C-alpha cells in the first residue's frame, strides 16, 4: 500500500474509533422524546421510552423549586439538587441537565466524578475553592477560588470538588452535558462499596495500615 493511502486509511480508522468511543449523549433525531414509564405504543431511546411527540405538553419540559435551598444537615454540610431526565422527562435525548448545590460554611461537595458529562459551575453566593485532577500519570491539580459570578469548568470524567471556604452559606448552579451525568463520589465508592472491597486491596493501594482501612470502611 502506498504511503499516502496508508496514512489516509489510518486517519479514517482513528476517526472511526474516536466516534465509537465517544461518551457524550447521542444527538436526537426528532424534536422531542419525552421519557415515559409506560412502554405501550412507545419507542425506546437512550434508556427511556418516548411519549408520542403529538402528546407532549409544557409540563414535560418544566421543573419548579430550584429556588429553594437543599437540606445540608449531613456529614459533608452540602446538598445537590439535581434536575436531570428523572425530574424533567423532556430532557430525554437532549444531552443536558443541571443542579443546584447548597453549602453550609466550610461545607463541601466532596471529590467525585461524572462519568458521562462535563460540568460548568457558576457561583451565585459565597466563596468556593474548587479544583480537579488530571488523569494518570500526570495527575495535575488545577484549582481556583471562586466568588459570586465566577464560572469554572470540570472536564468530563475527571475527579473534582467544591469547598465553601467562606464564613457564610454558598450557592452554585451547575450545568452538565448529559441528561443523566451520573456521579461517583470517590470515598463512598472506594470505602463504602456493597459488598466491601477486600481490605487487603485497599491497604496496598493506599499504602495504609489495615486497621485504618477497616476504620474508613466502617465510616461509609
The main β sheet shows up as: 5 strands, antiparallel
Gap from first CA to last CA: 58 Å
Query: What does the overall shape look like?
Result: globular
Record the strand order, biggest sheet: 4-5-12-7-10
Number of strands: 13
Helix-strand makeup class: alpha+beta
Helical residues, percent: 10-25%
Uncertain regions spanning at least 5 consecutive residues = 16-21
Individual helix count: 4
How would you characterize this protein structure?
This protein has 220 residues and is of the alpha+beta class. Helix content is 19%, strand content 30%. It contains 4 helices and 13 strands. It has a 5-stranded antiparallel beta sheet with strand order 4-5-12-7-10, with no helix packed on it. A 5-stranded antiparallel beta sheet has the order 9-8-11-6-13. α3 (199-206) crosses α4 (210-219). The chain is globular, with a radius of gyration of 21 Å. Residues 16-21 have low confidence and may be disordered. It comes from Vitis rotundifolia (Muscadine grape). Mn(2+) binds at residues 112, 114, 119, 160. InterPro entries: Cupin_1, Germin, Germin_Mn-BS, RmlC-like_jellyroll, RmlC_Cupin_sf. It is found in: Secreted, Extracellular space, Apoplast. Disulfide bonds join 33-50.
Amino acid at each position: 500500500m502506498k504511503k499516502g493511502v496508508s496514512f489516509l486509511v489510518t486517519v479514517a480508522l482513528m476517526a472511526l474509533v474516536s466516534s465509537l468511543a465517544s461518551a457524550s449523549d447521542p444527538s436526537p433525531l426528532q424534536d422531542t422524546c419525552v421519557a415515559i414509564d409506560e412502554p405501550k405504543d412507545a419507542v425506546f431511546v437512550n434508556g427511556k421510552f418516548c411519549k408520542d411527540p403529538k402528546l407532549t405538553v409544557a409540563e414535560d419540559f418544566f421543573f419548579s423549586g430550584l429556588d429553594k435551598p437543599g437540606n445540608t444537615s449531613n456529614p459533608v454540610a452540602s446538598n445537590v439538587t439535581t434536575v436531570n431526565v428523572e425530574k424533567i422527562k423532556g430532557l430525554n435525548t437532549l444531552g443536558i441537565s443541571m443542579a443546584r448545590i447548597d453549602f453550609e460554611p466550610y461545607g463541601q461537595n466532596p471529590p467525585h466524578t461524572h462519568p458521562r458529562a462535563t460540568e460548568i459551575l457558576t457561583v451565585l453566593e459565597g466563596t468556593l475553592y474548587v479544583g480537579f485532577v488530571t488523569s494518570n500519570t500526570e495527575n495535575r491539580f488545577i484549582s481556583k477560588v471562586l466568588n459570586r459570578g465566577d464560572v469554572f469548568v470540570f472536564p468530563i470524567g475527571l475527579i473534582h470538588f467544591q469547598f465553601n471556604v467562606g464564613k457564610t452559606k454558598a450557592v452554585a448552579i451547575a450545568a452538565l452535558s448529559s441528561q443523566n451525568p451520573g456521579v461517583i463520589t470517590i470515598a463512598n465508592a472506594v470505602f463504602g462499596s456493597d459488598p466491601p472491597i477486600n481490605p487487603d486491596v485497599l491497604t496496598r493501594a493506599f499504602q495504609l495500615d489495615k486497621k485504618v482501612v477497616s476504620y474508613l470502611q466502617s465510616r461509609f
